Each structure stands twice: as structure tokens, then as C-alpha cells.
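May I ask for a sample protein chain and its fold as C-alpha cells?
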Amino acid sequence: MSEQYQGPVMLAVTNILRPPPARIGRISDRFVLPRTIEVRVLIAVGAGTFAGLMAWFFPIGLLFSHSLVSLFTLMVSGGGIGYLAVTWSPLKGESLGTWIGLSAGSSRPGKVRFEGQKVYAYLGVAPLGYLASGNVRIRPGAVSVPAGSVDERGVPYSKDEITRLLGETAARQAAFPTR
């Protein structure tokens, strides 16, 4: 261990500790996939394909004629939409579902209008319900404080501390009388 590090080394291994997504490579003894596929992707593509099949039976079949081309088109389109729903990432590293949740959460009330946009405003950790109307100017300034009424950090002494300090001062002056 080099001299520049002191103490134990801490590693942030969150991604290592998180189990990988479940994968499947064999559906039955006779049906083996050429490579493993994530289970959530397989379920999403299957659900999209089924939704395409149902769309072919009811709205498309009632409005248009049932044809094999329209069946395959709707099933492949539904499967593709299901695949995109679980794999496409509009935000880097986030799924489409997370992005939809964040978008829906950002439309909650509690926003203030700042420079023409609705945003959340905070002062430290406290959310602001409204912004100041008009111009706000911050100017440097000071307040006269009696000497000895604050500690070295600038925090005012409490009443008990002041009486204790005054008592020590009075005791010192009694021990060394001056004219």
C-alpha cells in the first residue's frame, strides 16, 4: 500500500453487488434459443405480439378484411413496440418506464415561474412556494454588536453564558482592584 493513502480503502461496488437481469436460453427441451435473452424483454415482446394479435381480431378485422399480411404486420409491430418499451433509453442509463415516471412527476404542482418556465425552487433544502416579486438586491452590511456578546464563531452567547462570563469578570476585578 502506498504512503499517500491512510486507512482502509473503500470501494463503491453497487453495480457489482446488484444481481444481473434474469436471462433465459431454453424454453423447452426441444426449443433452445441461439443466445440468452432477458426475461423482461421476452415477456414484453410476447405481450406486444399478443396485443397485435388482439388488434388484428377486433378493430382491424372489423374495419378491414382479415389477411395474413395484416396479421403478421400487427404482430411484428406489437412485438417491436414491446421490445422498444423495455430497451429504449431516452435518458442515459434509465428505462422508458423510469423516464415516463419522471416526466409525470415533473408535472406535479408546487412549481414556480422563473424566467418564463415552471421550475421547482429551493432555498437550501426548503422548497419555495413563490418567488419574490420585483427586483431583489443583496447588499453587504453589518450590525453593531457589543463587544463580548458573541463567541469566536459569531454566535451570540445565551443568557446563562453571559451571566457566567460576567461573574468571571467580576471575580477577576475583585481579585485585582484598580483605580
Summary: Residues 39-63 form the longest helix (25 residues).
